[in-house]
Amino acid sequence: MKDMLSHAYKHQYAIAAFDVVSLDFIEGIMAAAEAKQAPIIISLAESHFEYFDFELLMAAVEKAAVRTDIPVAIHLDHGESYKSAVRGINLGCTGVMVDASNLPLQQNIEQTKAVVAMAHGCGIPVEGELGYVPGVEGEDAERHPGEVVYTTVADAKTYVDATGIDFIAVSVGTVHGRMKGEPKLDFERLTEINRALQIPIVIHGGTGLGEEQFHQLIKNGVTKINYYTALADAAGRCIANNATSTGSAGYTSLVKGISDAIQLEAERCIELWGSAGKAEALLSCCRPTLPVEHVILYNTKDLDADGIKDMMAEGKRVLSEIPGVREVFTGDVIQEDGNYRYCWVVRFTDRSVIDSYRVHPDHQHFADTHFRPYAADGRVSLDYQASLLDEDSKA
Ligand SMILES: [Zn+2]
Predict the structure, then answer these.
(1) What pLDDT is attached to residue 182?
(2) 172 CA → ligand 1 middle, Å
(3) In angstroms, what is the span from residue 78 Cα to ligand 1's centroid?
(4) Which of 77, 99, 166, 350 is flagged as catalytic?
C-alpha cells in the first residue's frame, strides 16, 4: 500500500479506497478495477463490523486480491484501538488506519505512535488522522452532528514527525455520509499541509464532492479517497427497484444486480480520480506482499503425550496473538521413521516479523517456560519467504 500511494503521490492521481460490507461490494469493486485496469484499496471499516463477520469477509477479500492481475491493498478503516490494528494485520490487512482523532493531540500522538511501531514491525504502513471529519460511513452527517474540526498545518507537522505515520487523513471540510448541498473545501489549507508534510494525503467522506473538487484535492497531494456512501446508495436503489419491478420479497430477487450497480459507480470514481490504466505501471514498481513461513522441526524430552498436547495448545493460543502472525500450525509427523516428531509452522505477514516476533515478550515467555526446557537438542529452525512466482505476487 505504501508503494501504491507513493506512486500515486508522485504521478498525481488518487486510488479509490472503497469500504465493503458484503460479497456484492467485493465483486462489484473488483469488476470495476479490473475493467479499468486500476489499482484498488479494499477497505473494511471497524464501524461496520456489526454488519458482517470481519474474519469471514477478510477471507473473501484476500482471495479476491490474490486471484486478480491488478494491484490490491487491503485496509482496516478507522481502527479503534491498538488491538484492532493487530487483529486487522493478523487477518491479512496490508494497511491499517488508527483513528484517535477524537483525542487531544498529545494522546492522539501517543496512541498512533504505538500502532506505528507495531505495524512497521510487521511491514505494514499506517494511516493516521488529525482533525475531525463529522459523521459515520454511510449515514447522514445530520444524524452525527458536530462541527468540522479543520486540520492545522502546525499540528499536522508535529503529528507526522512524532508518530512516523505513512499517510495522513486530514479534515478540510468533507463529512462522512450524506449532507445537504455541496461541501465547501478549504483548498488553501490543503495546499499548505501538503507543502509542509510531503506524504500521501487521505480524504474521508468522498461522496457528494463535485468533479472540480476532486481535481483540486488530487492536485494538492490527495492520493487515497475513501468512498462508501454512494456505493451503498446505489445498492439500496437497486433493491428498491427490484422490489417494485418484481413484486417479490424473496432475498435473491431483491439483491439481484447489486454488484453491477456498485461496479458502475466505482468505475465512474476510478475514471474521475485518474487511477484507470495505472495497474501495469504500479505492478512494476510495487513490492508485493510476501509472507514468510517460520518453520521449526523438533523432538521433545521429559514430556508425556498430554504434556506435548498442552504445550502445543498453549503455543497456538499465545503465538497467534503476536503482531504479524497470520497463522500457527502445529503438527505430528506421519512417517514412522521421521527424524523430527513435531513441527511448528508460523506464518508471518512479512520478513520484518522475524525480528519483531523473536523479541516479543509473549514469544520469549512461551519459549522460555513451555518450549525450550522440553525441546530436545538438534532441532531445525528456518524461515522461508514465499517465492516470487507470477501467480502469487499480486496482493
Ligand atoms: Zn472515514
Answers:
(1) 75
(2) 13
(3) 6
(4) 77
Cα(261)–Cα(3) distance, rounded to whole angstroms?
30
Which residues are found with C-beta within 5 Å of the ion, ligand 1? 204
Predicted confidence at residue 143, as pLDDT, reads 57
User: How far is residue 299's CA from residue 177's CA, in Å, rounded to a whole number?
Assistant: 57
**Residue 77 Cα to ligand 1 middle (Å):** 7
77 is catalytic: yes
> Ligand 1 centroid vs 233 CA: distance in angstroms?
17
**pLDDT (0 to 100) of residue 394:** 47
pTM of the model as a whole: 0.94
**The predicted structure's pLDDT at residue 43:** 98
Gap from CA of 136 to ligand 1 centroid (Å): 7
What is the mean pLDDT of each successive set of 10 residues along the chain, which is 395 residues long?
A: 97 98 98 98 97 98 96 97 97 96 93 97 96 74 68 94 96 83 88 97 90 95 96 97 90 96 98 98 91 97 95 97 98 95 97 96 98 95 88 49
